[in-house]
Amino acid sequence: MIKNMPLSAMIGLFFVCLYFAMAIFAPWLAPYGMAEVVGDVWEPSSAAHWLGTDNIGRDLLTRMIYGGQTTIYIATAATILSFTMGSVLGFLAAVLGGWADQLLSRSVDLVMSIPSLILALVILSVMPVTVPILIVVMGVLDSTRVFRLARAVAVDINAMEFVEAATLRGEGRGWVIFREILPNALSPLVAEMGLRFIFAVLFISTLSFLGLGVQPPLADWGGIVKENKDGIVYGIGAALYPAVAIATLAISVNLVADWILNRTTSLKGGRG
Amino acid sequence: MGPALRLVVQRIALGLLLLFLVSILIFWGTLILPGDVAQAILGQSATPEALANLRDELGVNDPPLTRYFEWLGGVLSGDLGTALTNGKDIAESIGSRLENTLFLAFWAAVIAVPLAILLGLLAVRYRDRWPDKLISGVTLSTISIPEFLIGYVLMYFVGVKLGWAPTVSMIHDGMNLGQKLHSIALPVAVLTLVVLAHMMRMTRAAILNVMQSPYIETADLKGLTKFNIIWKHAFPNSISPVVNVVMLNLAYLVVGVVVVEVVFTYPGMGQYLVDHVSKRDLPVVQACGLIFAAVYITLNMIADVVSILSNPKLRHPK
């Protein structure tokens, strides 16, 4: 499996691992404390501060590392939530059929008829903005897309002979879902997971940029842009570092997801 | 026109039903969520009297059904209520902002749609050669960066380093069209880049799909040039999926506009919405949310209607 890996997927996997390692070992890697003021405002890069300092004199490399930790943590948690919810409900809808399927599918249609960002803004206008609430809101909104894919895949599998055989020998719904459908639906779902993770990273960054995501002094990539955006007009590019970080992470995950998808199946999931 | 007409009517009815359900979702969603709205607006230190007053003003004590229909009746007759934070009429504040937002989205669409189709045709013409790979590579990277970061990258390099366009998009009635366009050059460029990638990739895929048909081979054997084959034989037959993708992306512009307006401090709907979400001004958020959702649903509906109408099997039943 690893031997036949194309170069693009290998590069992608390398960067994904690098980013996750950076997120996990952030406190040991970061040269300074997360919210520690260590220099002047917007110092250029130097030996002491590789990326310079930010709008109130904190080390930008440190902020980027901790920011990656927050962003990746929230995105990962939201993706896990959306996957568990979306795929369990999607499989259930496919196996149960009838009115349960109709009810679930039509509710998902309703939620998906509003752009997620708009719906998230409406919800966050009445909820306190904290990390757990952000994760739940993002996870639930995103689970609608997972639901669609999981249901479509499960309906196909549900019509196969081996599922019929399992039902005839008297296995329950739980067995059919977890022992028959899940193993066969795994690869398209895993590829979709990569895309959903990227979507979550972009989504939380956007919310933080709008001031409705991660709250200061906690660092995150979208927030770093918000804090340093005023420097742009003076020709200070501090706000552009998160662009590089998000783009490399997104492209790497895409490369890995493409490889998994090409390797295993012809099923394609929706983007966006 | 029999079956096509019926499908179109069905689709429009579904759209209206969806709009009605969405209005319920937006109205009740903001009420049934845990958390006291009045408390959230005034903060923890609010006095009980102030809380009671605000609750009264919000109408929290009335039965929800009455309140919903009062609100819906107001929305349908153009009365969106008054903002909590400054007491201004919401419909009045939204009016000119909606116009500005549509102005921005319109110019982004005018540039992005022909460009996407042209690039899609080029990518098919030079399939798997360097122009195709270059176009694919650039569009893939614009998909991977959020809109607001593309905005700042352009602002930094084009606006500040080169000084070609203003970094703040102020717009007012006293400007003529040329000045307005110069003012919104950067936000339009960002929106164009964001929707261009998806539209171009789908156009390419749709045309490539048609390129495998036998009549393309015939055209090839007749000795037509490659570009003639694509333009005269493949493209007309892939119009339906292309139109569909274009409409979906125009719907996506509605969302992209929110973020881009904040980046360039453009006086539109998006900035109005974001401002009032952080101020927890519920009536404004509900009104803006409903308008954005309505535009989105309408564009999606048009996309479906167009794809029904462009299906010859439905237009000419046997």
Describe this structure in words.
The complex is a heterodimer of chains A (272) and B (318). Chain A is mainly α. Chain A has a single domain (7-34, 47-244, 254-263), classed as MetI-like fold (Orthogonal Bundle). Chain A has ten helices and no strands. Chain A has helices spanning 7-24, 26-29, 60-96, 98-112, 116-124, 131-158, 161-168, 173-209, 221-228, 241-264. Chain A is elongated. Chain A starts with 6 loop residues before the first helix and ends in an 8-residue tail after the last helix. Residues 265-272 of chain A have low confidence and may be disordered. Chain B has 15 helices and no strands. In chain B, 77% of the residues lie in helices and 0% in strands. Chain B is mainly α and 318 residues long.
Features:
heterodimer; A: 272 residues; mainly alpha; MetI-like fold; 0% strand; elongated; B: 318 residues; globular
Topology:
The complex is a heterodimer of chains A (272) and B (318).
Chain A: H1 7-24, H2 26-29, H3 60-96, H4 98-112, H5 116-124, H6 131-158, H7 161-168, H8 173-209, H9 221-228, H10 241-264
Chain B: H1 2-32, H2 37-42, H3 48-58, H4 64-76, H5 90-125, H6 130-143, H7 147-161, H8 177-183, H9 185-210, H10 214-221, H11 226-237, H12 239-263, H13 269-278, H14 282-309, H15 312-315
Helix pairs in contact in B: 1-14, 5-6, 5-9, 5-12, 6-9, 7-9, 7-12, 9-12, 10-11, 12-13, 12-14, 13-14
* Run of helices and strands of chain B: HHHHHHHHHHHHHHH
Structural class, judged by helices and strands of chain B? mainly alpha
Q: What CATH first level of chain A would be assigned? A: Mainly Alpha
User: Percentage of helical residues of chain B?
Assistant: over 70%
CATH homologous superfamily placement of chain A: MetI-like
Number of strands of chain A: 0
Q: Main sheet of chain B, how many strands, which sense, barrel?
A: none
Radius of gyration from the alpha-carbon trace of chain A, in angstroms: 21 Å
Return the structural class of chain A: mainly alpha
Overall structural domain count of chain A: 1
Low-confidence stretches of chain B: none
Reading the helices and strands of chain A in chain order gives HHHHHHHHHH
The dominant shape of chain B is globular
Largest sheet of chain A: none
Whole-angstrom Rg of chain B: 24 Å
Bin the strand percentage of chain B: under 5%
Alpha-carbon distance between the termini of chain A?
29 Å
